[in-house]
Amino acid sequence: MNRILALLCSPRPDGVSDNLARLFAEGAVEAGAGVRLEPLRRYAIAPCIGCGACSRPPHNCVLAKNGDQAEELFSLLQAAPLVLLAAPVYFYALPARFKAFIDRGQRFWAARSQADAAKGGESLLPPKPVLAALAAGRPRGGQLFNGALLTLKYFLAPQNARIQDTRLLRGLDKPEDLWARPAVCDALRAWGRHWGERVTARAKDGRVE
Which superkingdom is the protein from (predicted)? Predict the structure, then answer.
């Protein structure tokens, strides 16, 4: 995939975080980049059952069958030159379906741990730049985004992915709250243009820095 992947991680269609991603996408497209907006809520993802099967080679998940689509999503993440994760914050954390998908990343942690022991930390996957756009209805709280960001950091690390930039927006309970802040909307489009330019500039050698 040569398009930016914007993963819409809210259970609510057309909610605040969906619109954050759309504004980013508008800017990226203006810069000449392709963007795929992919709603996580459309995917069937069974939650991890903690069975430990993925701790053994070949580190496959026993749930990856019978219509489960977690592996399909992981493939999209790995193929994209840049990933945007757009999500609301619920009780200082991430929504349930997104957390279920995150927990299914345990197999990458197991494989990475074995690779670290065998090869001195060499990753099995190419580096992946990731952006995070998080929205909270709560207008204040010094640690409002900390839990979500830590979860994302350690979800991404075994996949050789790292958050390179964030937009952390509070006081946005419904889309109308976002539209009432035109400067924020413009800034999100500008953010998309910036990263769209970087993706298109690096398209020939396959890197985004």
Answer: Bacteria
Residue 33 contacts by C-beta under 8 Å, 6 or more apart in sequence? 3, 4, 195, 196, 197, 199, 200
3-state secondary structure labels for all residues of 116-156: HHHHCCCCCCCCEEEEEEEEECCCCCCCCCHHHHHHHHHHH
Closest CA to 165 of 121, 125, 140, 198: 198
- What is this structure's pTM? 0.93
The string of pLDDT tens digits covering residues 150-198 is: 999 999 999 999 999 999 999 999 999 999 999 999 999 999 999 999 9
**Segment 80-123, tens digit of pLDDT:** 999 999 999 999 999 999 999 999 999 999 998 887 666 655 56
CA dihedral 12, 37, 4, 162 (to 10 degrees): 20
